[in-house]
Design brief:
Layout lengths: L2 E7 L12 H21 L3 E6 L14 E4 L2 E4 L6 E3 L4 H13 L5 E3 L2 E3 L1 H11 L7 E6 L9 H16 L4 E7 L16 H9 L5 H17 L12 H12 L11 H8 L7 H13 L5 E9 L4 E8 L1
Parallel strand pairs: 1-9, 2-8, 2-9, 3-6, 4-7
Antiparallel strand pairs: 1-11, 3-8, 4-5, 10-11
Helix pairs in contact: 4-9
The protein binds the ligand O=C(O)/C=C/c1cccc(O)c1O and fe (ii) ion.
The site of fe (ii) ion has 7 residues, from loops.
């Protein structure tokens, strides 16, 4: 039987680019340093990371609800590292077969580009893209329409069942969320140039990437003020959601209403789908699990309801 530990963390590409006050930066730095020390102590033999993509690797020319990578390269957006991740190809393929055998459809990429949604948390928890073997599983959380939350639970459970039989120390990471709405465009109603980007905008020019990043930084400077038309952070919603996970009430998430969450907590809140998958993977092999909330703070400068949960 494997020894499985999990961590879910918000991510934000604005870390180091539009920081809040230094005491908040120091507080988050210390939370991350502690989590990383725990990971190092655990010394995982395998990491599985459930992550979203933000129109860097996956576009509407073919948008899969779930995709497992047998090889992955970081695009190095914002301040993240560029380069290949250490993906164990055969094991990733075996996991994909196992998931398909559980009646779940998952796409397979033999050359996936991943962005800060995957790499920031991997870097924060391990200091590198390559220190440990890692299998990325991307869950569409940013490009509507989305499947229901109960499908995410089933995906997580299948992954947990697969990992349980490996007899390894396995760390599962979930990255993204909580409440937030960065200026990521929507396909519906988009002008032609934006629609073209959302459909097939892979490998943008350095100028296009810089312009995108400048737009996000500008949005961060006014987020949460009356000048911003983006849905603000929602601390009540964030705490409600984290409590459900910590208390093991995963069945209550099955019927989450997608449109309602977008309106209440922001369109990118659906990155919590990665947290749901992570906790469901653990719940499939350990009931009851033991979970704790390590941190929470709403941070407008980072466009992030910023939280950290751990469980085993
Ligand atoms: O995709 C982008 O360019 C920006 C994404 C973003 C911005 C702020 C908070 C986040 O969690 C993001 O993913
Ligand atoms: Fe994100």
């Amino acid at each position: 039987m494997s020894n499985i530990k999990i961590k879910c963390l918000s991510h934000t590409p604005l870390r180091g680019l539009n920081d809040p006050g230094s005491h908040v930066v120091a507080e988050v730095d210390s939370v991350i340093a502690k989590a990383r020390a725990e990971v190092e102590h655990f010394d995982p033999e395998l990491i599985v990371i459930f992550a979203p993509d933000h129109y860097n690797g996956l576009f509407y020319d073919l948008m899969p609800p779930f995709v497992i990578a047998t090889a992955a390269d970081s695009v190095g957006d914002y301040k993240t590292l560029l380069g290949a991740l250490s993906v164990p190809k055969e094991l990733a393929l075996e996991m994909a077969r196992f998931i398909l055998d559980k009646d779940l459809d998952i796409a397979i990429s033999h050359r996936l580009q991943v962005d800060h949604g995957c790499t920031q948390t991997l870097e924060e928890m391990t200091g590198s893209l390559t220190k440990y073997p890692v299998i990325p599983i991307i869950i569409n959380s940013v490009a509507p329409p989305f499947g229901p939350y109960r499908r995410i639970r089933k995906l997580g459970e299948a992954v947990g069942q697969f990992l349980a039989q490996l007899n390894k120390r396995v760390l599962i990471l979930g990255t993204g969320g909580l409440s937030h709405e960065p200026p990521v465009p929507l396909l519906s109603g988009a002008p032609d140039d934006i629609a073209n980007f959302l459909i097939a905008g892979r490998n943008p020019t350095p100028e296009a990437r810089a312009a995108r990043q400048a737009r996000t930084i500008a949005a961060g400077k006014i987020y949460g003020t009356s000048e911003s038309n983006l849905t603000p952070l929602n601390t009540d919603w964030d705490q409600y959601f984290m409590d459900l996970l910590v208390q093991g009430q995963l069945d209550e998430i099955d019927d989450f209403k997608i449109e309602e969450i977008s309106k209440t907590a922001g369109r990118s809140t659906h990155e919590i789908r990665t947290w749901v998958a992570t906790f469901s993977a653990l719940a499939a092999v350990k009931k009851p699990y033991s979970a704790r909330q390590d941190y929470y703070r709403p941070i407008n400068e980072w466009i992030a309801g910023y939280g950290v949960l751990s469980a085993e």
